[in-house]
Amino acid sequence: MFENQAPSGPSTLFAKDIFKGRVAVVTGGAGAVCASLCGMLANHGCDIVCADQEQQRVDEVVARVRDAGRIGLPVVTDLTTTKGMDELKQAALKKFSRVDILVNGLGENLNSWGAFEESNEATWQALYEINLLNVFRACHHFIPVMKEQGWGRILSFSSVEGIRASPWLAVYTAFKRAVDAFTKSIAVDVARHGILVNALALDKVRAYQSNFYELPDEYLRLVETWIPAGRYGEPADAAAVALYLLSPANSWIVGQTVVADGGTLAAGGWYRTTKRWTNQPLLVQHLESPEINETRPKPLQ
Ligand SMILES: NC(=O)c1ccc[n+]([C@@H]2O[C@H](COP(=O)([O-])OP(=O)(O)OC[C@H]3O[C@@H](n4cnc5c(N)ncnc54)[C@H](O)[C@@H]3O)[C@@H](O)[C@H]2O)c1
Question: Which of 59-68, 211-220, 255-264 has the lowest mean pLDDT?
């Protein structure tokens, strides 16, 4: 049987020089998915501007890019601020005089779980800055550069949580869905300049902000209940989709939100138990346990 595993050899995905001569600016570039993406892009010939607030992880990504024989430029800054984003633009253009690819990887729910009526404006503002405003600023900076070059790729990370409901994360979901709407409208406007803009909606990919889904061993058997693909996504699973959307191989996907989630959105509330599928997950214990099953009310005749 073939197992559905994360891509292990990024350099084999496309021809090694498919991004040769291209420069990519990656925000949140030291995050789990975008660090993997920076490595894949570099392995395919791309030079990288890795922007993130975590100095040590930025240095690691840049070292990986340089090991691949490409130029890696570190930019360590707070990307939720105008100052940080201006700094990124200046550093990228000073070093390379061009930017072909923009990856808006920055985004987080900031652990803002809770009933909406108990949330406050400071949290809404912080969620706005980290999930949406930075996307506006980055696109505003780099679209003119790409227009002048006559070629570009922009990919913004949204979320499956912006497509389905995510109770207790209402404001986060609103900004993630806004990324999709913004993507659609600018994509239609700039496509004729050779700039293709898309979004990537993720779910269940191991990352810093989800603590890599580290769980006690007794919960591991439940992963197949939650995720149709039967495992958590690795950063490379998501990065490989991004790599395609950013590459010249993608010439016709415009303004779309591509979902990469191991099937959670398609499952739409259906869960696999050890014995069957259910859309009533609180019954999982009954369906799995013969003793408890005995106590279930019998169906009406
Ligand atoms: N992993 C998933 O399953 C999942 C699900 C839904 C959406 N997403 C989205 O995918 C994108 C990639 O994230 P990831 O999953 O790799 O997460 P991650 O937590 O691994 O990476 C996020 C990165 O952003 C950086 N960052 C945070 N605040 C910053 C700031 N103010 N300035 C500069 N850098 C800052 C962090 O240092 C980190 O390196 C995000 O937009 C996220 O919302 C991921």
Answer: 211-220
Name the residue at shortest CA distance from atom 31 of ligand 1: 78
Q: Is the CB of 87 under 6 A from ligand 1?
A: no
At residue 157, the 3 state secondary structure works out as strand
Give residue 300's identity as a one-letter amino acid code: L
Q: Establish whether residue 190 lines the binding site of ligand 1, counting it when its CB lies within 6 angstroms of any ligand atom.
A: no
Question: Domain 15-262, what fold?
Answer: Rossmann fold (3.40.50)
Mean pLDDT of 160-171: 96
Q: What angle do CA 40, 14, 54 make, to 5 degrees?
A: 10
Whole-number Å distance between alpha carbons of 66 and 160: 33
What is the torsion angle, in degrees rounded to the nearest 10, for the CA atoms of residue 35, residue 97, residue 189 and residue 180?
Answer: 20
- Give Cα 68 to chain centroid, integer Å: 23
DSSP string over 278-299? ES-GGGHHHHH-HHHHHTSPPP
Q: How far apart are CA 66 and CA 42, in angstroms?
A: 8
Closest CA to ligand 1's atom 22:
31
- What residue segments make up the domains of the chain, in order of their start? 15-262, 269-301
Longest Cα–Cα distance in the chain: 77
Of the residues 157, 173, 203, 234, which should be mutated to test ligand 1's pocket, given the most ligand atoms within 8 Å of the CB? Answer: 157
Task: Decide whether any atom of ligand 1 lies within 6 Å of the 33 Cβ.
Answer: yes
Ligand 1 contact via 54 beta carbon (within 6 Å): yes
Q: Measured between alpha carbons, how far is 257 from 270 in angstroms, rounded to an integer?
A: 22
Over range 237-253, report the average pLDDT.
Answer: 97
